[in-house]
Write a structure and sequence with these properties.
The complex is a heterodimer. Chain A has helices spanning 3-14, 19-31, 44-59, 64-77, 88-103, 109-136, 211-218, 255-267, 289-298, 321-328, 342-354; strands at 141-150, 155-162, 174-178, 186-188, 200-205, 225-228, 245-251, 274-280, 302-308, 317-318, 334-339, 362-364. Chain A is an alpha/beta fold. Chain A is globular. Chain B is mainly alpha-helical. Chain B is built from four helices and five strands; from the N terminus they run ααααβββββ. Classes of the chains: A alpha/beta, B mainly alpha. At the A-B interface, helix 2, helix 7, helix 9 and strand 9 of A face helix 3 and helix 4 of B.
Amino acid sequence: MDTAALKSSFGKVASYGDEVPLFFYSYLFLAFPETRDMFPASMAGQRDRLVTALGHIVSNVDDTPRLVPFLQQLGRDHRKFGVIAGHYPAVGEALLATLAHFLDAEWTPALAADWRAAFALVAQVMSQAAEDAARVNPPWWDAEIVGHERRGIDVAVVQARPQTYLDYLPGQSVAVESSLRPRMWRYYSPANAPRKDGTIELHIRLIEGGRVSSALVQALRPGDTLRLGSPVGTRLLLDPNDRRDLLLLAGGTGLAPLRALVEQVALEGGHRRVTLLVGARSGHHLYDMPALVSLAQTHRWLTVVPAVSDDPAYPGERGHLADVGLRLGPWTGHRVYVCGSPVMVRATVDRLATAGIAPQDVHFEDFGTGEGGGPA
Amino acid sequence: MTTLTGGANPPGDRRSGPLTPEKLRTAEFGRAPFGRRGYHEEEVRGFLNRLAEDIGRSDAEKARLRAEIDRLRNYYREVGANVDGPPSRPAPTVQAIAVMSRAQQTADAQIAQAEEDARQLVAPARQRHEELLQDAQHKAAKAADEAAAAHQVRAGTSTEQDHLERRVAWLRTFAEVTQIQLKSTLHALSREIDKLGELPVPTLADGQSPTEPLPGYPGVQVPHQPPGDHPSHQPGGGQAHHLAGVDQSLHPTSGSGQPHHASGGSQSHHAAGGAQSHHTGSGGQAHHTAAGQPPHTAGGGQAHTAGGQAHTAGGQAHHTAGHHTVGGGQAHTAPGGGQPSGHARHALSPQPGGTPRTGQP
């Protein structure tokens, strides 16, 4: 397989931008109409995801140790969309047709053979991983809503009970789909460490104009069912071999995974000190104080500091979360976890770096991949 | 309607297997009961015969087609084509793909526009919501501060005291009115915002758990733990971290001394009468109750105040979240400032309904 040819031909095709995934999906849906139902009505975000995933695969095509885990994850992840092994040839055909269309005269039989071989390999790794996962886990978990609590105008705290036990690590997230907004998956992090009864708590913030979040906050009701995908994410996990104290910086509903970490520390016996800074724009946006207060009451190793950025009359800590954190420092010997909106995370990580906190001690989610609306 | 009767194989019975031309021709129907009308017997017979002919013809046609399929299948097998897999679909033409792509792009644009419209409708409403809430908090805090100041000057003459009490009563009433107005405004606003999403509006059912916040009221929550159980934080290493239910600063209640909530009734969590004040307190420690500017509600609401960060030199700082439940007809004050002193500085209503309790250190 001529990997250089694969890369250069993909580079050329990718330069056509959005036209490429448009062509790909149109071909796929025309030739295999049964695949259309796996995707949301709007394909705008979907197209970028496809190109990103393809680009990632192609650029790592000769780096098997990196590529294989990525493909395996992709394969496992696609189970929740209802993708089965039988769909791969359809995708392969659409992909080759797309490449042929955009490469035109450069689409030689040799290049076509290389691409066909490469896709066969990709499909094989993905469907094998999916098959392996199918022996352990269902393609998705149906979870009944057992609690739905509005906390202010834009946050809902949802308790969901998966019908079969959903195991995950605190700090991970799961893709969530509601029948209110079919085929639109969004990632949320459980706000609790795994419980004996299997229930998980999700903190959902209403994004203005966001179709999924508005439905989950405003229309979801106890008794409704959510679909949950396999837990993903490694960046916000606690390192089991590292017993250092923790500084947790939570912006908005970014609190959820960090609260799960607090609960994990508690389950492990509370052998380290944890300082949890909870940021919000104003006091009444601190939507989970009762639970945090209760945790802090129970555990002497835990300190919870609410901080507010946009209300000068707020009686407690005021300012950007990173600044509040740095004021309360120093945090030498701590591991720092940051979670919140992408803007908040970026700003916080930058400020921590400027303040001299070693980047390898700062954990945060990378938003490059993630938001999944449909199969790539 | 003709009643199907008798015979081993009544014509309408599926258990007798698929209809054949012969079965149609020989079908027997029962007679309509006397006095009921039935179809013309000859017409029925004629129709059945025609059906029998058609079925017979289509059976013959099917046989011919099967033979043709067989012949073609054999032909393609001979020339080496796979005829047993899924039927090969013609590849979509580039024109079809272009049409499909345009349709998808149009759909994408419409959806994006709808989202943008929703965003533009909701954003100002939320902004207004925010402003109303902050404004209410500031007003309530101000009213409470004035009430506090009034009470701290209690050493005056009896006429002064009368005057002060009248003023306190006025302030309390003012706060109540503000609250009632705000409550209805906020509620209406929340409903409007929910409606924008064309989604069902959450309803506050009677008997809802008192620990549930009212839908659509940011930061308005009944505390989950009994008053006085707010933690005070044991600061580590010279840091005093303050922690309290700071978001619980405004309770949308109306009417003083009543079990609140729009739905009335079943909630006893913060029932009337029990004016309570909680603070930590025992000798030698600094107590910060409501340090800074506590947002306060008066007139039957609960005001939960939390001090800011307290730093006491060399000692421990104990913080409490002050829980003040104002009983009916009692003015309620909080200390201004937050100066530490050797004893709990808690300006209470003239007749506190509850005993000040000691919170957890």
